[in-house]
Design goal:
The protein is an all-alpha fold and 288 residues long. The chain is built from 16 helices and two strands. Helix content is 67%, strand content 2%. Helix 1 packs across helix 14, helix 3 packs antiparallel against helix 9 (152-168) and helix 10 packs across helix 14 (236-251).
Amino acid sequence: MVRWFKDLTRVKAVGEAFRSLGVDGCLAFEELDKQLRVVKDLVDLCGVARTTYLITANSLVSYMLRFRGEEFWSLFREFTLKRCNSVNDFTEAVELVKEFTKAYNNLSLEFKLRRLDSLIKCRELFKPLEKGDLRSYVAQVARCLSSEPYSKTVVFSAKMSYYVFRVAGLKAYLEGVNIPVDRRVSLITLTSGMVNVGTQAYGVKELMNYVDVLMREPKLVVEVWNEVSKVSGIPPIVIDAPVWIVGGYLSFNMGREEIVKELINSGLGGRVDVNVLRRLIQELTYKT
C-alpha cells in the first residue's frame, strides 16, 4: 500500500508560480488547448445551446478512449459539424452523442450508453448552466449519474461548458469547481513534489509508476490543487490548462528548457513573460 505525503512548502511554491502567471497567463495556455478550438468551431456553426448539450454529454462519456484526447475531440468535431443543425432539443443532442459513441467510443459501450440514457432523464441539470453556475451544475449532474462531484468526467464536463461560455463571451461562475483529475494532472501533482510517496521517487520515468495509483485518490489530488488555487487566487478549473498541457509534454519526457521553447513557439511568446514561464515549469517539474 502506497502512503502519500503532502508537502505544503511545495504547494506554496507552485501556488506562487501560478500567482505570477496570473489568470491572463492561464487563459493564454487555454488557447493552446485543441479542445477549446473544437468548442469554438461548434459554437460558430451549431450555436451556444446545441454546443452546450453536445459538449457536456460527450464529456460525460470521455473515458476509456480508443484515441488520444486531442484526436478524440477532433473526431467529435467532424462528426458533429455535419449533423448538429438537425438537433432541435436536449434529447436529440444526447441521441447524436450516442451515435458518435457507438462509432468512435465503444470501449465499455453498454455502460456509456446507460449513462447517456440516465442523462436524458435529468434535463433539469442544465438549468444552472443557463445562468453560468458551474458549481450547481456539477452537484446536479453528480446526483443524476450517482457519481462524486470530484469525478473526472463530471468535472471535465463543467470545464468544457466553461469553454463554451468563454468562446461565446458569456459569464461563467467558476468558484468551487475542482480540477479534473486525469493522468496528466496526477503526473504533475507528483513531479511538482506537492504529493510524495513514502520512497524518494524522482524523475518522470519513476514517478509514472505511481500515476495510476494516485488516480485512485482523486480527493487528495483535488485537495492539493484547491490549496494551490487559494495561494494563487486562480480557480482550479482555470489552473487546469497549464497543468494539462505541461503534463502532456512531460509524458514525452521532454526537459524543462525544451518545454519552455515549445510553449513559446506554440504561441505563448509575447503573451507570457519568459521568466514567469520558466519559473512555472521549474515548479511543476521540481522532481524531474
